[in-house]
What we know:
four-stranded antiparallel beta sheet, seven-stranded mixed beta sheet, binds pyridoxal-5'-phosphate
Amino acid sequence: xxxxxxxxxxxxxxxxxxxxxxxxxxxxxxxxxxxxxxxxxxxxxxxxxxxxxxxxxxxxxxxxxxxxxxxxxxxxxxxxxxxxxxxxxxxxxxxxxxxxxxxxxxxxxxxxxxxxxxxxxxxxxxxxxxxxxxxxxxxxxxxxxxxxxxxxxxxxxxxxxxxxxxxxxxxxxxxxxxxxxxxxxxxxxxxxxxxxxxxxxxxxxxxxxxxxxxxxxxxxxxxxxxxxxxxxxxxxxxxxxxxxxxxxxxxxxxxxxxxxxxxxxxxxxxxxxxxxxxxxxxxxxxxxxxxxxxxxxxxxxxxxxxxxxxxxxxxxxxxxxxxxxxxxxxxxxxxxxxxxxxxxxxxxxx
Length: 350
Ligand SMILES: *Cc1c(COP(=O)(O)O)cnc(C)c1O
């Protein structure tokens, strides 16, 4: 099966062997407080630091999903107010979810083709929430430094669910980063990753939330011993460890993904194929890892049917773009011959 769905997405083919190994090594039955399990967790954290160049003083936790990070940030890291910048469905959901927990939520929406205007905003020191890669519409915010500069006191929280493991990220520009394993990391769904700066940990201590099973301080206390606050997805941690050990450094992956995205965009822009047009016109805000392609409902249905008939899954549109776009994941586990196969169908989509 070939899939370009932007999550859950294509898993690395090596995962088939790793699953067998996991069974043979008996790790599927290990106790989560055992030394064996702690070793797997320690190894996975170490390899994340190495391969993705995550600073040593940033903590890494395994949680159940990216969505859980929205909750942890609202419960354990927000004093009373968060400001959410978004232009699409995931950023919006994050804000709406946070509204149920946090007393004051400010929503700042911006256009698909632009970046938010930070100049007019008042100083703010609580939590600033940014969706770096908006999976619903294929946009991204490349540079996070302007947020850091505009809100130097605040904690900057960034949703990188659909770019983490695909492109290089400038870790020091934010305090909280989170993602899921089922997107650019090419793993089966069922685990989230949260990355926390020293400044964020300090804030958590100041807030001292200890009311919930997933309060950040409990999570941190457990991870100090390479344990988790819940019985974890041991297989997920094992697979993460294995996959990361065997893939290239993020600098190499990122270069390939960025080149592939340039090729993909020019495929749609310079082609007479009638395979749809790129939803986002402004090149500087186009996502490297998720492309949204627009057409009439009829055109989109036609393309979906054609690809499906050839055994290739493309991503449905999302939210308000549900019927008038389709999405193409440009994730590292997808191979060149698969891209060629999809392009040859799209060329033929008249
Ligand atoms: C997929 C996705 C999520 C949700 O991830 P889960 O692990 O399923 O909770 C959140 N944000 C963005 C930007 C996503 O692409």
